[in-house]
Design brief:
Layout lengths: L1 E5 L8 H19 L13 E12 L6 E11 L4 E7 L5 E7 L2 E3 L1 E4 L2 E9 L4 E10 L9 E6 L2 E6 L22 E8 L4 E3 L3 E7 L6 E7 L11 E3 L2 E8 L5 E8 L4 H7 L3 H12 L9 E5 L5 E2 L4 E4 L4 H10 L6 E3 L6 H18 L2 H15 L15 H4 L2 H19 L1 H13 L6 E3 L1 H12 L4 H9 L4 E9 L4 E10 L9 E9 L2 E9 L3 E7 L6 E4 L8 E6 L8 E4 L6 E6 L4 E7 L5 E5 L9 E4 L6 E9 L2 E9 L1
Parallel strand pairs: 2-12, 18-19, 19-21, 22-23, 24-30
Antiparallel strand pairs: 1-30, 2-3, 3-9, 4-8, 5-6, 5-9, 7-8, 10-11, 11-16, 12-15, 13-16, 14-15, 17-18, 20-21, 24-25, 25-28, 26-27, 26-29, 31-32, 32-35, 33-34, 33-36, 36-37
Helix pairs in contact: 3-4, 3-5, 4-5, 5-6, 5-8, 6-8, 8-9, 9-10
Length: 636
């Protein structure tokens, strides 16, 4: 018996894509690391933020900012008099205006508390907080000052809880800001990256400083508001979409990076067209998408303008996908982080499938399976959000999350999968808002008309993966015998039902067939019409599973005759030059339905009564002098 291959050991995946993906995960984990100990400090009555305007002066060479944040909000409680914003206590609040008039305030324990004349529930409240300070002292590292090769740079990265370190905000994961403006004053010869459309750039006649006016008219989570300032080189163009529309694309690039960027950045066009077609309209079509380089490794999917350490294929695909999965719909809790990161990671694979080669697409899937199965336990759903390494577990939230989506696509089919994805992204209950895992499951079930409860229970909420042993052998020149047995890596799941694809190869050709694997131990007899030389399990890597495949000892008795075939009452069996020792009739599942005692000598005809069999296909298994042969028979 020869052991042919072991999927988990297929570590031939392309080094560059593996390294890119691990760098993305490492960067996002590092961004969260400094913020993990944040505790909500905001108190007072509840409100709904409808509009905010950031008016900030930033010099990337000076560790200091000043300005104001104007907010419009709707009171969510009657007798609305006291509410607050999150802001680091080390920032200095100079004054607060309520409806244009200065009012008193308290600023302590990282909270700015305001008391205003009583407002009724659903009344509009307008306030503006004027402040200044060095935001880089905050432990969350939401605002950084640094140097790139051509000069100083400042940038923000607030995910998930760093925003309060640099601007008065409502830091949470349930209320998006409905509309946003950013007016950023910076030194001449610099550019300020921001959200939405750049409506104009004004010049101060006194000191030649520049004021960048950004306007964003979509709901945005607090952690996705961002700004970056340095002496960027600018490139822009329109990406034509498959429906004839177009999206404005803007790149803010380090001057020293221009030679690489000129080659790399245009890959975004095919990604945008592909994702826009598969996932539905790019969520911010009438504004823009863009990249702004910054000084941290990896990237960050700030809304309409991702911050990037570099413009490589994998990072661009990942951050672009987040505009749908993370920005248009944001995970409603960090336990549901896989809805952001699993989807963005699977979109890396989809980008390879659409733009690169089939081999590169498969290599990404192989690496994802390898990573997701290198430990026996671990769930996609993040039960522990207090441990940053566990929350941003690349094997679970990213790689296994991506493979859950790939296997779901296989289970329900391409058409239903992408239609359900578009329906999910257009669902008015969650689009431009927040979603939990059950929201995603409900849309998949509604579109596919399938009950997927058990699928998600096993693959998202529980732990482990299936481990299959597959043994096959030829039992005649056209037929193979296939044995499947499954164990699981973790006791939380006893068995994983699977649709397994096989590729059977013979000299000069091949075929693809699928088996529904529904029992832990089962056998199949398959008439494939050719002498099979090689059998490949799951050639397109649809399933999150480990396979061990054995090729058994083949039996190729060629001189076997069965007649008549089809038959009604009796059949005759003849084997040339071999003494028949045993004969069995099996159904299509490999179950023995009849056994016959054989007394005849070599080269004798064996007559069999088959009148008791129900009409249908059967297989006759013949054992002769240590050899075995299986031949298909039809009972009429």
């Amino acid at each position: 018996m020869r052991k042919v291959f072991f999927l988990a050991s297929l570590l031939c995946s392309m080094w560059v894509f593996a390294q890119d993906m691990e760098a993305i995960i490492k960067g996002e984990r590092a961004a969260f690391e400094a913020k993990k100990n944040f505790k909500f400090k905001r108190s007072g009555q509840e409100y709904d933020l409808t509009y905010q305007q950031l008016n900030l002066t930033i010099d990337p060479g000076v560790r200091y900012i000043n300005g104001s944040v104007y907010s419009e909000l709707i009171a969510q409680e009657p007798n609305f008099t006291q509410f607050s914003f999150d802001l680091d206590s080390r920032m200095t609040v100079d004054s607060v205006h309520f409806e244009g008039t200065p009012i008193g305030f308290l600023h302590n324990n990282d909270e700015v508390t305001l008391i205003i004349p009583s407002k009724a529930k659903n009344d509009l409240v307008e306030v503006e907080i004027f402040y200044q300070g060095d935001p880089s002292v905050n432990e969350q590292n939401g605002f950084s000052f640094d140097y790139q090769q051509s000069g100083p740079i400042s940038w923000t990265l607030s995910e998930p809880y760093g925003a309060y370190g640099w601007w008065p905000c409502k830091q949470q994961l349930y209320d998006k800001i409905d509309s946003l403006d950013m007016n950023i004053t910076i030194p001449k010869n610099n550019k300020a990256a921001g959200m939405g459309n750049l409506v104009r750039v004004d010049t101060n006649n006194v000191d030649s400083s520049l004021i960048f006016h950004w306007e964003h008219r979509y709901p945005i989570a607090t952690y996705l508001v961002a700004v970056a300032v340095t002496n960027y080189y600018e490139e822009s163009h329109y990406i034509k979409l498959s429906d004839g529309d177009s999206v404005f694309h803007l790149d803010y690039i380090y001057p020293s990076y221009k030679p690489q960027a000129d080659t790399l950045r245009l890959a975004i066009d095919k990604m945008m067209r592909g994702f826009d077609s598969l996932f539905g309209d790019y969520p911010f079509r009438d504004e823009k998408y863009g990249h702004a380089m910054f000084g941290r490794g990896g990237g960050m999917e700030h809304q309409t303008m991702s911050f990037m350490s570099r413009l490589d294929f994998g990072l661009m695909a990942h951050e672009l996908a987040h505009q749908w999965f993370g920005n248009k719909i944001t995970c409603a809790s960090w336990q549901d982080l896989w809805l952001n990161e699993g989807w963005a990671t699977y979109s890396n694979a989809i980008a390879l499938e659409l733009i690169k080669s089939k081999e590169e697409f498969h290599e990404f899937l192989i690496k994802s399976i390898s990573r997701a199965t290198r430990n026996n336990g671990g769930a996609v759903y993040a039960y522990d959000t207090t441990n940053v390494n566990e929350l941003f577990n690349g094997d679970m939230r990213y790689r296994k999350g991506a493979m859950v989506l790939h296997q779901l696509r296989w289970e329900i089919g391409d058409s239903a999968f992408f239609k359900a994805t578009r329906n999910y992204l257009e669902n008015v209950a969650v689009c431009y808002g927040f979603a939990h895992t059950p929201d995603f499951i409900a849309e998949m079930e509604a579109t596919s008309k399938m009950d997927l409860t058990s699928f998600f229970d096993r693959l998202v909420y529980k732990e482990g993966f299936p481990m299959l042993t597959v043994e096959w052998k030829r039992i005649n020149s056209k037929t193979i015998h296939l044995d499947l047995s499954q164990t699981t890596s973790h006791p939380s799941v006893e068995f994983f039902p699977l649709r397994i694809q096989f590729q059977a190869k013979w000299e000069g050709g091949d075929t693809i067939f699928t088996i529904d694997h529904n029992q832990s131990i089962e056998s199949r007899i398959l008439d494939l019409g050719h002498k099979i030389e090689e059998l490949i399990v799951d050639p397109n890597y649809w399933n999150l599973a480990k396979y061990t495949v054995f090729e058994g000892d083949h039996s190729d008795m060629s001189a076997v005759s069965i007649y008549p075939n089809p038959a009604n009452q009796k059949i005759a069996v003849f084997v040339l030059d071999k003494k028949v020792d045993a004969l069995e009739i099996m159904d299509c599942l490999g179950r023995v339905v009849s056994e016959y005692e054989i007394l005849q000598l070599k080269n004798s005809t064996i007559d069999l009564d088959i009148s008791h069999l129900k009409p249908g296909p059967y297989f006759i298994k013949i054992t002769a002098e240590g050899n075995q042969s299986v031949t298909k028979m039809i009972k009429q």
